[in-house]
Amino acid sequence: MNLDFNTKLADGYSSNSQIARILTEDWVKQNSYCPSCGCLPLNEFANNRPVADFYCSTCSEEFELKSKNGTLTNTITDGAYSTMIERITSNQNPNFFFLTYTKTWSVNNFLIIPKQFFTPEIIIKRKPLSDTARRAGWVGCNIDISKITEAGKVFNGRPYSYISWNKTNSINI
Ligand SMILES: [Zn+2]
């Protein structure tokens, strides 16, 4: 498995967040398959989808990729609280990939959280933005992955192909 991102894809881009999105999405596309049915490859949604980033055309599972520079921490800052709750309690709630990467654009950690472990209890409401903020009253959220049982976390320390996913409750590596 190649842990380095294909930085050639970033040619012509200057925004770090845009570069990160392009490189991390490409890496997931090149290196992952559907952990639910084993199907290869995952497909990307068009960019205007509010939450999901990938889907499996065989079993219709949806996947959302969260990525950040640095190491994996217990709390991950995310977007609007209400959007997240709506999404994870819907019929098409997604599975999650968490990817952290180094300053030199390679993978630090890759974590898969199947959707059944992604419940409202792990979504922590942040304080509303103050009245003086541009988006006053807006409420964001943090994802507290420390609340997810170890059975729900699959670290990609081993080649991904060794991971099998028992859809009902647990994961075997
Ligand atoms: Zn699938």
Describe what this molecule looks like in 3D.
By secondary structure, the chain is an alpha+beta fold. The protein has one domain (7-79, 91-118, 149-172): 3-Layer(aba) Sandwich (PvuII Endonuclease, Chain A). The chain is built from two helices and eleven strands; from the N terminus they run H-E-E-E-E-H-E-E-E-E-E-E-E. Strands 1-2-3-5-6-9 form a six-stranded mixed β-sheet. The protein has a three-stranded antiparallel β-sheet with strand order 4-8-7. A two-stranded antiparallel sheet has the order 10-11.
- What is the H/E string? HEEEEHEEEEEEE
> Using DSSP, what is the number of strands?
11
Give the assembly state of these chains: single chain
CATH class bucket: Alpha Beta
Roughly how many Å is the radius of gyration? 16 Å
Describe the sheet with the most strands: 6 strands, mixed
Helix content: 10-25%
Helix and strand composition category: alpha+beta
Determine the strand fraction and express it as a percent band: 25-35%
Mean pLDDT: 81
Tell me the name of the CATH homologous superfamily. Answer: Dam replacing family, catalytic PD-(D/E)XK domain
Strand order of the largest sheet: 1-2-3-5-6-9
Q: What count of helical segments does DSSP give?
A: 2
- How many separate domains? 1
Shape assignment? globular
Distance between the termini: 17 Å
